[in-house]
Amino acid sequence: MLWQHMQPQTIELGWDFYGPVLLFVLLVALAVPVWAAIGAAASLMLVWSGALPLSLVGEKLFSGIDAFALTAVPLFILTGDALVRTGLSRKFLDVAEALTQFAKGGFGSATVLVCGMFAAISGSDAAGAAAVGRMTIDRLVESGYPRPYACALVAAGACTGILIPPSIAYIIIGLVLGISASTLFLAAVIPGIAILVSILATNIIMNRLYGWEGGGNISMGEYFSQLWVAIKSGWYAFIVPIIIFYGIFSGRLTPTEAGATAVVVTIAMGFILGTMRLSDFPAMLVSSAKVNGVIIPIIAFSIPLAEALAIIGVPQGFVAVATGISDEPWVLIMMMILVLIAAGCVMETTPNIVILAPILKPLADNIGMNEIQFCIMMITALGVGFITPPLGLNLFVVSGLTGESILKIAARAVPFVLFMLAVTLLIAYVPAISTTLLPEIYK
Fold first, then answer.
1. What pLDDT is recorded for position 161?
2. Which of 339, 346, 416 is nearest to 378 (CA)?
3. What is the DSSP letter of 253?
4. Are 78 and 69 in contact (CB under 8 A)?
5. Assign residue 369 a region: left if phi > 0, alpha if psi is -120 to 50, beta otherwise?
6. Per-residue confidence at 215, pLDDT binned at 50, 70, 90?
7. Given this model, what pLDDT does residue 1 score?
8. What is the average pLDDT score of the chain?
9. Which is the most buried residue in 42, 47, 196, 432, by most CB within 10 A?
10. Cα distance between residue 436 and residue 443, in whole Å
């Protein structure tokens, strides 16, 4: 585990901590890429603290990302892109729409469901927001939803991208803290579904309040008939998530192997269906590489920064400060949640995980919190940041798709944020939500 590699020299923080932090804030404010800002801050911290010779930083960058588990990240990203290009994602929408056609707010609920289905394959929230947004936002508006609310609904539903396994975020936090990604995937099933249900419930309540979309007047026989048609037409699309879930949870495949299998199967299905050609490969690979090229450098530069923070005593210092304020576990858990939500509002998930997990984990250990529960709580709290300004990534994605004001979308997203926060609190204070499906050894 990264945070256990080195013991702190002191918990008295000086300019070897505050200087790099100020540099990082300044660079981010100047719109310098996050990976570069983290790299500069990490290098300065390592030099000033004497934690690691600067000549070894380059070696750390490569050794930090030289992990078999990280190979799953580009594979799941590529699977999500292939899913869209083969048209299989539209089959998910057809089945979700057939499932919810009888309900008030049916197409809105279908939109949330297809976000969850997409999340169960790609593990990326931004990819889900873009893919589902292109298919549904205009239709949501035609169904009666205000455009800012339709954008907020897609942005909220896409948050499940990092919350429903397989998730890139769980792969990263597992790497940082030395926890099996497969174990985290299993623990995340119930919390991920709980978040999905909270978003569905929010949309149903909002629909009843404002009457945007009526329920379908359909008999039970007609409902099952149309559902059967949708399933018969698109059943093969569900082969991909079945392979991923069965392979990982049965122990037959590692997340990396499951991702590789999913890529091959999705592309093969595209060729069989005639929806993918060899000429599609360059654009698909470039698109996936761009997303991966944002994630991996952040991980690489965050790892030496996390080790520098551990050496100068930041995790232990944070524990000392927090326990000095209160020794009540429920208060300390609330403090961690507030830190995570605030961090999620201003920075993307990957650097938050690599930097904050080693800092907050000792506090969670100090109050006896199960380490699996801590990971689930952390990722869920950070997930809320995807629909909160100023840097809610999903808000920017759907705004870019539609041209709608980010502030208008954020205002419409408030009910979703509140419901997601309620689930986050449940996860934080009720360990069984995260540990019920785990073997006894992890409880």
1. 83
2. 339
3. S
4. no
5. beta
6. low
7. 46
8. 85
9. 42
10. 8
Per-residue pLDDT, 155: 92
At 60, list the tokens: 């750390």
Burial label, 257 (beta-carbon count in 10 A; 0-12, 13-18, 19+):
middle
What is the C-alpha separation between 169 and 383, in angstroms, rounded? 10
Helix residue ranges per DSSP H, 326-392: 329-346, 349-366, 371-384
For the chain, what percent of residues have pLDDT higher than 70?
Answer: 94
- The secondary structure element, H or E, covering residue 261 is helix 255-273
Residues in the chain: 443
What is the rounded CA–CA span in Å between residue 310 and residue 137?
45
Asked whether the CA dihedral 174, 179, 180, 186 is positive or negative, the reply is: negative
Higher pLDDT: 49 or 285? It is 285
Other Cβ atoms closer than 10 A to 339: 19
pLDDT in tens, 38-75: 888 888 887 787 766 777 777 777 777 777 778 888 88
**How far is the C-alpha of 352 from the C-alpha of 340, rounded, in Å?**
8
Count of CB atoms within 10 A of residue 142's CB?
11
Kindly report the backbone phi and psi dihedral angles of residue 3, in degrees, each rounded to the nearest multiple of 5, phi listed first. Answer: -75, -10
- What span, in angstroms and rounded, lies between the C-alpha atoms of 240 and 88? 10
For residue 50, CA distances in Å to 17, 62, 111, 270, 440 come to 12, 20, 52, 54, 43
What's CA 224's distance to the chain center, in Å?
Answer: 34
Which one is predicted more confidently, 308 or 330?
330
Is residue 3 predicted with pLDDT exceeding 70? no
DSSP H or E segment with residue 5: none
* DSSP codes, 176-226: HHT--HHHHHHHHHHHHHHHHHHHHHHHHHHHHHH--SPPP---HHHHHHH
Q: What is the token pair recorded at 282?
A: 């360059």
